[in-house]
C-alpha cells in the first residue's frame, strides 16, 4: 500500500531533484541523511513506479518514490 508523504526537496546545481526531509501527516519530520542511489524503478510492495530514491534515514535504508508529481513510500516503510 502506498503512503503518500510531503517531501522537502531542492534542485542541485546540475538540475537534479534531491529530497531532504520526509514529513508525515501526523507532523513528524525525518531528515534524509544520505541518498545512495537514484533510478527509475517499480515498488514491489506498493505497486506503481517512478524515480526511486534509496535513502538513509536514521541509519536505515528506505525507498522513497517520486511518481509523476507525488512522493510515496511503502506503508510499512515508515522510519
Q: Can you tell me about this structure?
A:
Helices cover 0% and strands 63% of the residues. By secondary structure, it is mainly beta. The chain has one domain (2-77). The protein starts with a strand and ends in a 5-residue tail after the last strand.
Helices and strands in order:
Layout: E1 2-4, E2 6-11, E3 17-23, E4 29-31, E5 34-42, E6 49-57, E7 60-67, E8 70-74
Antiparallel strand pairs: 1-8, 2-3, 3-4, 5-6, 6-7, 7-8
Produce a short descriptive summary.
The protein is mainly beta and 79 residues long. The protein is 0% helix and 63% strand.
Strand proportion, as a percent range, falls in over 45%
Helix content: under 10%
Please count the beta strands (DSSP E, at least 2 residues each): 8
Q: Report the total helices.
A: 0
- Record the strand order, biggest sheet: 1-8-7-6-5
The backbone outline, from C-alpha atoms, is globular
Q: What is the rounded distance between the termini?
A: 16 Å
On the 0-100 scale, what is the average pLDDT?
Answer: 91
Number of domains: 1
Contiguous uncertain segments of 5+ residues: none
* Secondary-structure-derived class: mainly beta
Radius of gyration: 12 Å
Biggest sheet layout: 5 strands, antiparallel
Tell me the series of helices and strands, N- to C-terminal: EEEEEEEE
Features:
mainly beta, three-stranded antiparallel β-sheet, 8 strands, about 65% strand
